Amino acid sequence: MxxxxxTHPESKVVDSRPADEGTxxxxxxxxxxxxxxxxxxxxxxxxxxxxxKKDASRQTxxxxxxxxxxxxxxxxxxxxxxxxxxxxNEIEQSLQNEMDREIPTARIGELVMDRLRGVDEVAYVRxxxxxxxxxxxxxFMSELTKLLEEKA
Length: 152
Hints:
Strand order of the largest sheet: 1-2-3
Strand content: 15-25%
Order of helices and strands: EEEEEHHEHHH
Structural class: alpha+beta
Number of helices: 5
């Protein structure tokens, strides 16, 4: 690490500790040339996730959009905002952990439905009806039948 005072290329780490709730590391360093101290922060470089939409257009992943979709599905249901936020964080982390930086909306939709199924069945059916674009009552009934079979 180059010293900000004398630009000497070498320094030693004097102290290290977590910062920003564990998302980065704060390091106190001392220049080996001028002996002045300075602070650096080390963070994980996260590459942006790109969502491939149904029309093949691309846009950056937005957790707020994900949360808003789940909020609409859970409207007037006994699901807390904290629970939905936790689910959105889990999904975002799951996507970040995958090696692929471009994720189709189908993958995100399936992850949301998997999580909602365990939280609230009505919210799951609401989300699935919009996500899977049920064309008629028969497709809606087949989804309900699958859900009832899984419970039995």
